Amino acid sequence: MRLDELRERLKEIPQADARRLQELKTELLGRRAGALTEILKTLPTLDAETRKQVGGAANALKRELERAIDEREQALARGKAARTGQGIDLTMPGRPVWRGGLHIVTQVVSEICDIFRELGFTRAVGPEAETERNNFFALNFPPDHPALDAQDSFYLGGDALLRTHTSPVQIRTLEHYPPPVRVVIPGACYRRDPFDASHSPVFEQIEGLAVDDGLTFVDLKATLATFARRFFSPDTAVRFRPSYFPFTEPSAEMDVRCQLCAGAGCPACKQTGWMEILGSGMVHPAVLENCGVDAERYTGFAWGMGPQRIAMVRHGIPDIRLFFESDMRFLERFSGIDSR
User: With contact defined as beta carbons under 8 Å apart, do 65 and 283 qualify?
Assistant: First the structure.
């Protein structure tokens, strides 16, 4: 087959379907039996001048054939994508890509700490591995308290254990800094609790401590009510109920009006219209004395809350295990980024 006859075959390429295009590619450019390959094999038998002319023309035609076949393959691919609805519309806006974000619990911790910072509290931190003295005895726990049992706490050996609350940081703070003291204490805590819809063996906690000359329960109520109305909404109703903690006296639980039913009663608040968010009280004089603080001169108040529970109350999240599952569909609801 002569080169001018092969050039005529170029006309077949733009109309060829996928199967016919592959056949043409083999017939014309196949390495073993392609028509153009057969012509190139004859070059060594030609004289120098003819070889130069034929070789140049053959290579030019080869490039034309390859370009025409490549263009037809691309056109067929675009047509297939369009038929299957997978074509790319360059006029459409780009799809947002999930790039991560702060976990909802981290966001709540930061927001709570920011509110108390504006109320004059400094953030304090401490080790997660503690001594029994800092975790229990300095906080006025009796030696026979159930929380000291190995079935309730994670012991590391001897009197060392993973802290069961962030209260040991209160002890460390009072021992290192003289009053007045105002600190807010976020951190991870550990207890031998079952992993269910409302409990986890590892959880975040935020505590607060204020010690000064002349602090009263009125200061405690005013501080925590201000926090609730800043965090939830300005018209949030709060109430305090008597309770008991070894390290505070008197002690109280604080509830807020249910954010889901506005107090009408729902399964989330167990039809009461209220949801408990924290425990609080006036610092027990024995705790102050254990830290070398004059309990005759100074008084204080403290509180503790779980950021997971706070987030559940605010956003109507029914199961604490959702915070631990790394489900992007759940997390992106609170990231401000849509990954769809």
Answer: no
Strand order in the sheet with 160-162: 129-131, 160-162, 155-157
Residue 337: the pLDDT is 44
CA–CA distance, 27 with 10 (Å, rounded to integer) = 12
Low-confidence ranges of the chain (pLDDT < 70): 1, 81-90, 95-98, 268, 335-340
Strands (E), the chain: 122-123, 129-131, 155-157, 160-162, 181-190, 202-212, 238-245, 248-257, 274-283, 299-305
Whether 186 and 123 have beta carbons less than 8 Å apart is answered as yes
Q: What does the pLDDT look like over 73-126, one tens digit per residue?
A: 888 887 776 665 555 666 777 766 667 778 889 999 999 999 999 999 999 999
Long-range contacts of 292-299 (CB under 8 A, 24+ apart): 292/174, 292/175, 293/174, 293/178, 293/179, 293/211, 297/213, 298/179, 298/211, 298/212, 298/213, 298/215, 299/211, 299/212, 299/213, 299/214, 299/215, 299/216
Strands 202-212 and 129-131: what pairing? unpaired
pTM, two decimal places: 0.67
Spatial distance between the Cα atoms of 64 and 29, rounded to a whole number of angstroms? 11
Ordered alpha helix ranges (H), 84-167: 104-118, 132-135
**Collapsed DSSP state (helix, strand, coil) of residue 280:** strand
**Measured distance CA(260)–CA(266) in Å, rounded:** 8
Q: Tell me the one-letter amino acid at 3.
A: L
User: In this structure, which amino acid lies at residue 240?
Assistant: F
Both structure tokens of 287: 């705790």
